[in-house]
Amino acid sequence: MAATTTLPPIPPSTCALASLPSASKMAARRVLRLAERQARSLRPLPRPPQRIGQWRESFGLSPSPSGPGPLRDLPDWSFADGRPSPPWRGQLRRLREQRELACRALALSRSLEAAKDPPKAPSTNQ
Prior knowledge:
Layout: H1 22-42, H2 52-58, H3 70-73, H4 89-116
């Protein structure tokens, strides 16, 4: 069975049905309720609002406008004689972070390799 919801009655003073006879009012109210129920069932459910990061990702962009890409990584200008512009603070910071990360990865890799190799016992050739 389909669940039906009851709507609150419409006060006669605010309704255009006040001038109709009572039997016609009841029929008109039934028609209005039926039309409202049909309109509710045909109305699509609204989609939840989409975060701006999800919208950017759906177009193949980074979630943040300040994410990696040519606008962040390439220089805005260069000297007329072809020399590159000096790096920005953000570029220097990212370069330093990438170097630190690479050094840490290398150190961890070396420690793993050292842990895999069994320690060599001193040979006793006498």
